[in-house]
UniProtKB/TrEMBL annotation:
Highest taxon in the source lineage: Bacteria
GO cellular component, one term: cytoplasm
Statement: the UniProt record of this protein carries the keyword Protein biosynthesis: no
Binding site for L-histidine: 71-73, 100, 111, 115, 322, 326-327
GO molecular function, one term: histidine-tRNA ligase activity
The organism of origin for this protein: Bradyrhizobium uaiense
Leader sequence residues: none
Protein name per UniProt: ATP phosphoribosyltransferase regulatory subunit
Amino acid sequence: MTEAVAPRSAAGSASWADALLASFAQAGYLRSEPAILQPAEPFLDLSGEDIRKSLYLTTDPSGEELCLRPDLTIPVARDYLASSRAGQPAGFSYLGPVFRYRDGQPSQFLQAGIESFGRQDRAAADAEMLALALEATTAFGLTDVEIRTGDVALFNALIDALELYPVWRRRLIKDFNRKVSLTDDIEQLTLSTAPGRNEYEGVLAALAGSDRKAALALVTDLMSIAGTTNVGGRTVAEIADRFLEQSTLKAGALPHDAVATIKRFLAISGDPDDAVAQLRALASDAKLNLAAAIDQLESRVGFMAARGIDIRKTRFSTAFGRGLDYYTGFEFELHARGNGSEPLVAGGRYDGLMTQLGSVSPIPAVGFSVWIEAMTRHGKALRGGAQ
């Protein structure tokens, strides 16, 4: 099955597609064209059952659940892992249709992008992704874009250095990744829990001081005795996490000094060089070892500058995240000037994906997706305004 005609039929002109694919090829990224029909399990496993309502699903005669690909990152990664190059540095580009339900919008739309696998020089690879993403905008005539960047690895490093209870760590990182209001949740965690008892007091007492593995084992046993695998749609793991959280909160509130440090961290923003200086000052003042994560950021900034990216026009914010558990480090979005909500290009580092897809050994991965609809719309508006 070929997708070569998709750009022309969808956009009316293939000029932007030719320019986009040429820039990817010149940078050394091979064209990948994964099958449109994909196993549904990886998408459900990695994105949760909530994504089911957006997928176009079917079942083959053997009972395997399949779907029309809702994006191209996972299909490209699966093809790479099934190839002879798995584990070795390799880069791929793509341009083709994806399918998912979007209320009030077409369910079939084009997606382009790049995925880079296996490179150990993470800072250089991150900078290359941002540079190529900026090149992609020029294929649509967009040369003045806002660059927004962040790094979830910095937040993870901060939470680790604060040595918080594991349940607090999971909750805060989950909030950060999903763009839940961290401020509200931090305030909630700062409050002492009420002294009253509840019907699960015995379970909470049994879990006091436990780790997640022990909590999961206890709840699994209790559920087995009760003869059920879920309650109110919650899985055993979700129930165990909730009990462990309540047990931890009952033991006391999030320390005020940790709250102050987290809030100071989340307030850091500006150009990347300024952010590095602010982060080193925070680490020194709070006596936290964040050196490795900050060094990685500083190295990336150096590679960005070497690729001609204007660091002074690049915005870095410690609170910036793309709202997905997917990412493990560098994250970025490119926006049309003055457009706050709709990215033209978005991506980042996702080093955990390959093991989640079955790789025995971890494989570094970084990439980005081009939102063709947004690109063509803003490119058209720019051309119209110039006439």
